[in-house]
Design brief:
The complex is a heterodimer of chains A (144) and B (322). Chain A is built from two helices and six strands, in the order H-E-E-H-E-E-E-E. By secondary structure, chain A is of the alpha+beta class. In chain A, helix 1 packs across helix 2 (67-80). Chain B is an alpha/beta fold and 322 residues long. Chain B has 14 helices and seven strands. In chain B, helix 10 packs across helix 11 (254-267). Chain B is globular and about 70 Å long. The N and C termini of chain B lie far apart (86 Å). The chains are: A alpha+beta (144), B alpha/beta (322). At the A-B interface, helix 1 and helix 2 of A face helix 6 of B.
Chain lengths: 144, 322
């Protein structure tokens, strides 16, 4: 069985779909803004599933009315990190929620090697499992 | 992983580069054929006529400004018709500068402008973000760019109104961060003309020096609107409207007294047109209130409470002999 059947990282929303175009991203941003979410842009070159906190690209954008501002930041981030994973996150500040309500990838490296499952035999028949990104061997910034 | 088999509402084909992202927001997208073939149809679709009529009704005087706004609205309407017939028309540059003395209605008109442009579909949301130098320029190195960008992002889809814009440029200090803010502004004004409209406002003479020292800014602004001072007659009309909205009215002789007050006040320093009128009326209200307050046992009628009498105005320091 392949561990990475689509050859792509599948994290967040829409990750099994083809990459969203900018027009489609705009519609998603517009939807979030209408719900009152604050969008933020994050990037990383270590997309391990347990790597929850990616690097922030600028501050979260509160009080925006239109998607153009968020899209501008996405484009700036793509220009700065063309070969990184970039995701858009929408923070819902409503009382009782106060967490990320939407999150999807808007930029991927050209080549996504995926992850390997490492097995370690310990004490008799016990096994210990580790997920390791194939791309994560190299130092930060040189991975993709 | 090429052609998607799903479709998104509001997008004709997923591959089209110009998608009307504002379809969902209820605004008529500017670049799509709306089927209208005559000016009346566009006006009916956009309801811009209402805003123009409101402008005419609510704002006293300002004839040159109103004429220019009508011109701009006409251009936008005709552009829509051109688009409907498949003629290419470049999105016009709508950045403006409003110059004029204090209290001549620059902010009020800017607010209306946002509405008009929204009705015509040239800005998607039609909100107004009013800022001054403090909101754009940072306090230390590296603070200005994020600050300016944040404001610009908030203003996208609407109108960015920069009050007293000449403060952005301080020639006496060559390390002033204002220059950085101006550069970012210029870049966005040029590259994202569809996303926001910038309106610079300020006093005439100082804006002129500002534009002289920033020729790039001046050339990117298509519309320079000059707000004339109000005449006494216009100021009287304004005061009537102001009192009307606050449920007050002039008593016998009070209007004449206020007319005389205005004639004296115009000659004084720091006269701020409509703003001075508002302040004078507020002071008259104060005097009316204390006049009524002193008559403890009188039963006050509706008339008493809404009438500003001549003596409330004549008590002003302007009428006192020096």
């Amino acid at each position: 069985m392949m561990t990475n059947p689509t050859g792509r990282l599948t994290q967040g929303q829409f990750s099994f779909l083809p990459d969203l175009s900018d027009a489609e991203i705009t519609l998603q941003i517009e939807y979030g803004l209408k719900k009152g979410y604050a969008w933020s842009v994050e990037y990383t070159d270590d997309p391990h599933p347990r790597n929850t906190y990616w690097e922030m690209f600028g501050m979260p954008m509160f009080d925006l009315q239109d998607a153009a501002g968020v899209l501008m930041e996405v484009k700036n981030c793509r220009k700065a990190f063309p070969n990184h994973y970039i995701r858009l996150m929408a923070f819902d500040s409503h009382r009782g929620v106060e967490s990320i309500a939407m999150s999807f990838i808007v930029n991927r490296p050209k080549d996504e090697p995926g992850f390997m499952l490492e097995r370690q035999e310990i004490g008799g028949r016990s096994m210990r499992y580790t997920t390791r990104g194939y791309g994560a061997d190299k130092p930060e910034g040189k991975r993709y | 992983m090429s052609a998607p088999s799903y479709s998104i509402p509001g997008v004709v084909s997923a591959a089209s580069p110009v998608a009307p992202a504002d379809e969902a927001s209820g605004a008529a997208p500017a670049l799509v054929d709306s089927g209208a073939r005559s000016v009346a149809q566009v006006l009916a679709q956009s309801q811009v006529e209402d805003v123009l009529a409101e402008l005419e009704r609510d704002l006293v005087g300002l004839a040159p400004v109103k004429a220019r706004i009508r011109d701009i609205a006409a251009l936008l309407v005709i552009d829509k018709l051109r688009i409907n017939l498949g003629l290419t028309s470049q999105a016009p540059s709508l950045h403006m500068s409003f110059t004029g003395n204090p209290g001549t209605g620059k902010t009020t008109v800017a607010m209306r402008m946002a509405q008009i442009l929204h009705r015509l579909g040239y800005v998607r949301k039609g909100h107004l973000v009013a800022v001054t130098r403090d909101d754009l320029v940072g306090q230390y190195i590296g603070h200005t760019a994020p600050k300016t960008k944040e404001v610009l992002k908030k203003a996208m889809g609407g109108v960015l109104f920069i009050d007293e814009a000449y403060y952005l440029y301080r020639p006496e200090n060559e390390r002033d961060y204002g220059q950085e803010a101006i550069e970012i502004l210029l870049q966005v004004m040029e590259n994202q003309r569809d996303d926001l409209v910038v309106i610079l406002a300020g006093y005439k003479d100082r804006m002129d020096t500002f534009f002289q020292s920033n020729p790039g800014m001046s050339s990117r602004i298509a519309h320079h609107l000059d707000f004339p001072d109000y005449s006494v007659g216009e100021l009287m009309q304004i005061s009537g409207k102001m009192l009307g909205t606050q449920n007050y009215r002039f008593g016998p002789g009070a209007a004449e007294a206020f007319d005389r007050y205005l004639q004296l006040r115009i000659g004084q320093p720091h006269f701020a047109n409509a703003r001075s009128v508002r302040n004078a009326l507020d002071r008259a209200r104060l005097r009316q209130a204390s006049r009524l307050f002193s008559e403890r046992d009188r039963e006050l009628t509706r008339d008493d409470l809404t009438t500003i009498e001549a003596r409330d105005i004549l008590a002003s320091r302007l009428f006192k002999p020096e």
